[in-house]
Amino acid sequence: MKQIFKTKGTCSSQIELEVADGKIVEVSFEGGCNGNLKGLSSLVIGLTPQEVCSKLEGINCGKRTTSCPDQLCKALKAMGY
Fold first, then answer.
1. Contact predicate 59/70, CB 8 Å
2. Which of 7, 24, 30, 76 lies in the 20 to 30 Å Cα band around 66?
């Protein structure tokens, strides 16, 4: 089932996310750096939430204390992963 997560502190405003059988099957961002976020989405498909967060959690963007990759991890954690 797809879930929508509202981001905080990033150029993107939300993440639409689906995890099935313990793996990420779909990710899309609304707003933000289109090419980078399409690339990020493509790279995480097929990985477990734990694999993704072990690499992306805590990344910041410029002077911001978060980033779109970090917000993706927050979304996954909000989903219980």
1. yes
2. 24
